[in-house]
Design a protein that fits this description.
There is one protein chain. With 371 residues, the chain is an alpha/beta fold. Among the domains are: 5-49, no CATH class; 54-67 and 164-360, Rossmann fold. The chain is built from 9 helices and 17 strands. The strands form 4 sheets. An 8-stranded mixed sheet has the order 1-16-17-15-12-9-10-11, with helices on both faces. It has a 5-stranded mixed sheet with strand order 2-3-4-5-6, with no helix packed on it. Strands 7-8 form a two-stranded antiparallel sheet. Strand 7 and strand 8 (150-154) form a beta hairpin. The radius of gyration is 23 Å and the shape is globular. The structure holds S-adenosylmethionine. S-adenosylmethionine binds at residues 164-165, 168, 193-196, 198, 213-216, 219, 243-244, 264, 266, 269-271, 275, 277.
């Protein structure tokens, strides 16, 4: 074996990875550098044309100002967040590093303890001060926070969530800006897997006509609560207790069209009649239906926390739908108080899932800001 062989092996591994990437981007012109070529020689050449690689930013969608929410610290498989008046500590499998400052974790009001039997999916909330379990049924722990003119009622749930996904704030601002650029009055907005409906409230407040679909009665009741808390009528939008895929099939048959569609599918879920949603199995059909449901001048905001699904994967999935911008949603750690241990360390970004924004027949350039 020549002395250069091991390095060549590693290079060849890297090359084959890069070749896969380049071919996915639509180019057949990936040119591999021979092992003996100088390190400065270009590894790839490819046609200069706007292809997939030009549209996939290995970047994070910029989070807007959200004064009511802060990621105070993260690490050791947990995150510490302030939601308005409450500080919560809960597991997050993406937080693989060490916390910056142990002292700040002592400010938590409540912490989530996953039940092993549920594989971490369910669990209980404990008061950090007394270690007493919160009574989730009593609804005694509910409080609310604001994002602009929208009010979200929050409460701890047995599923570790509290009623909003704060990383979605980036999409809420994009939604407001998109609605301002879309001519249709009122713009029709479809929110699939709409959960507690903060995006729906924001769309209504921007003058849109909203259809909100979710499989859970609890989520729909919560969305109604958020409408009222935000000063809107409880029937200000069309609330559909339905399987998202089933609804999309029916809406396509009825010829419904929407100027904005939001879809934030989970990895796995069930419709109200037990219909199964499995991301890998059903997402291609959902995307095909969304292509039909989008008006000629429209925008799709598609995000997912489905584990292992990347922005590049989303871009490939949605590339026929329109002009795609794909990236990640993330929460950026807040600066620590001056003098705190770790205050000098650069804040880290906690990955919160892949997201794609698709523009069809409408110019949305410049709206997506990148961190
Ligand atoms: C990831 S959350 C969506 C979060 C929401 N977009 C937000 O930012 O607040 C998932 C939601 O999908 C709903 N869901 C799960 N399976 C569903 C299905 N088959 N059809 C409709 N909704 C479903 C759940 O009830 C839950 O409210």
């Amino acid at each position: 074996m020549s002395p250069g062989a091991p390095a060549c092996k590693a290079l060849s591994r890297r090359r084959s990875q890069a070749a896969r990437y380049a071919v996915k981007g639509g180019s057949k012109e990936a040119v591999q550098r021979p092992c003996h070529a100088p390190a400065s020689a270009p590894v790839w050449t490819r046609r200069e044309r706007p292809g997939l690689l030009a549209r996939v930013h290995s970047a994070v969608f910029k989070a807007p100002l959200f004064p009511a929410h802060e990621l105070l610290d993260s690490g050791a498989g947990e995150k510490l967040e302030r939601f308005g008046e409450r500080v919560l500590r809960r597991p997050d499998p993406q937080a693989l590093w060490n916390p910056r400052d142990e002292a700040v974790w002592r400010t938590a009001d409540w912490r989530f303890e996953p039940a092993r039997a549920s594989g971490g999916q369910r669990g209980q909330w404990l008061s950090q001060a007394s270690s007493r379990e919160l009574d989730l049924e009593a609804n005694a722990g509910a409080w609310s926070i604001r994002f602009g003119a929208a009010t979200a009622v929050l409460r701890p749930t047995a599923f570790k969530h509290v009623g909003i996904f704060p990383e979605q704030a980036s999409n809420w601002v994009f939604l407001q800006q998109t609605l301002a650029r879309i001519d249709a009055r009122p713009a029709r907005v479809l929110n699939l897997f709409g959960y507690t409906g903060v995006a729906s409230v924001i769309a209504l407040q921007a003058g849109a006509q909203v259809t909100h679909v979710d499989a859970s009665k609890t989520s729909l009741a919560w969305a109604r609560e958020n409408l009222v808390a935000s000063g809107l009528a409880p029937d200000a939008m069309r609330l559909m207790l339905d399987d998202a895929l089933g609804f999309a099939r029916k809406a396509a048959r009825r010829g419904e069209r929407y100027e904005v569609i939001l879809a934030d599918p989970p990895h796995h879920g069930r419709g109200p009649r037990g219909e199964e949603w499995q991301f890998e199995e059903h997402v291609a059909e959902l995307v095909r239906l969304l292509e039909e449901l989008l008006a000629p001048k429209a925008c799709l905001i598609f995000s997912t926390y489905a584990f292992g699904f990347s922005p590049l994967g989303l871009a490939s999935l949605l590339q026929r739908t329109g002009q795609v911008e794909a990236g990640e949603l993330a929460l950026l750690e807040a600066p620590l108080a001056a003098g705190a241990k770790g205050a000098q360390a650069a804040p880290r970004a906690l990955a919160c899932g892949a997201c794609a924004r698709v523009a069809r027949g409408v110019d949305l350039s410049g709206l997506s800001l990148w961190s």
